[in-house]
Amino acid sequence: MVKISRYILVFTAIIGLSVVLPQFYRMAFEKPTKTPLIQYSCIDHDFMIFRPDADDKWTNREGTKLTREAYEKKLPLMYTRQLVMDGTMPDSINGQKINIQHTGIFRSIFRITPDEIHAPKPKLYPLFESKSGRANLEMPGDFFRITWRMEFIDAKSNKILEEKSRMFSAVLYNRGFKFPAKSINGIPTTRKSCDEGYLVIDSANQLFHVKMAKGVPFVRKVDLPGEMKFKTIQCVDFSDQLYYAYLFTENNELYVLTPYDYMLEKFEVDDINPDEYEIRIYGDYFNFNVITIGSGFIRTQVLNRDHNKVDEYTETRPTYQSSSEGKLAQFLFPAELKITDDKSSFVNFFLTVSQSYWWLIFSLVLIAGQYFIIRLQKKKSEPKLLT
Amino acid sequence: MWKSILYKEWLKIRWFAFIYAALGILVVGNIFLKVQHDFEFSQAENYWYSILFQGNQFYEYSLFKFVPLLGALVIALAQYFPETVNKRIKLTFHLPLNENKALLAMMLFGAFCLLAIAAVLVVLFTGLSGMYFPSEIIQSALISVAPWFLCGFTVYFLTALIVLEPVWKYRFLYLLVAATLVPIYLQTAAARAYSPALPLLIVFTVLLSVALLFSGYRFRKGEM
Asked: Where are its TM segments located (chain B) (predicted)?
């Protein structure tokens, strides 16, 4: 038992130190790397790149140096306000006359990171009244869950609202909803232009649109092609009101869901994996820039408004592992144990094993050093015979 | 004989255990006093919304996070520090009992007291939560406070190990290990974020419970 307690102490020390030592090392030596901004120019039909930490900050794909002003002129739909202020906003682009107010409607920005996907999700949601006749949305007094039925709980009394729960559950049941819900996706805030309820995946992986209109349930099943499964569904509230949501599938495809006709339209992009990569989608009057940022690369795929691919550009980026401080860390530590991770909002034990075996040499040197220290100590403590 | 040992342990820690329990009850009471106040002033639905979507962790109020840690530290010091004064623990080792079993009995008694107080606090917390919140919010809150109570047990076991260790150099090394381990239980995180880590944290905590035997062994050996 005493031996076991000794091993446990050693094991505990290993766990604690493999968390703390690499963490201290990173805090002391890790240098930040800034992500470049890669945008497709509707003027040049080429990529414009802004690298915040480079000497040549603004360039095109070939590396031709640009001034800030020239760079902004190549991206008129992104820097509209600056160009209008400078009086250099073009009247027409690609032969089309530009109305600034009109093109502004088609501008959209979307971003999602892996830690937003791998995060604890709330299990209760507010269902807003989508046709209240009021200019602003109002927070309802109850919240719903979808377990064996759809239940509304009154926040003030903490009691289930039976009548409302039965009404919504019955409609869901009649539309073929299989309880419970696997995921509930929406924009649960009053700070949006209008309410479109929630997109709900049921236990049979069917997709439903659920909202409340004038106090009564609106439930619509969305036809999915084949056995489509989603990693995440991200509802959006863009000013053009062209889509309900971006839908990221299990096989790393990207779809949008259109309102009214509930069509799933595919974005002709590939390797869109929100589990691993940060995804940014910038929409404007002419194009969508779908940007994936992973460990060691940034990739921009450009689509036209019909969702067909126009062009793409990939650039490698230095990683911590490839930097000199990262290489030294791999020499010092056989593994790194982290409690939190960039790709998750959960607290867990995230183990990263060193990619090289240089740490073996360092460990052998330490063992040899320890061996000689012990031998020296033993020699010193040996009783000397008096002659 | 065993009864006498447990009674001796009880005599050492009883006032500290009462103070810890009373402090815990006061803190839980204070948390729900704040909840009740916020319910009145900011409307129930807005309060629920702030918990569900804005990261309001109502249970963090009154430094509840550190209460189990402090309670465990005080109880461990009260239980083991008197044993090191004039090496009184040696009297226990001279009893006609297995020395390891005697040490484990002391440790189990302390851990049981901590568990009893934790149970009282958790029952009180859950009961009061039930008055204001649905099961989803209560479950999230319980998952979030669980590492704090586990941290209490870890601190108790590590304090016992450090206090009973006869050599200062080793005490310092154990303290370093404790300093690396304890923050793992106290990370600032979203509600329910600890759910995947909890099983491993429970295993660590249970494993640490026998670490005390090593200090006891070194004490018996007469390490100086």
From this structure: 12-33, 63-81, 102-125, 137-164, 171-191, 197-217
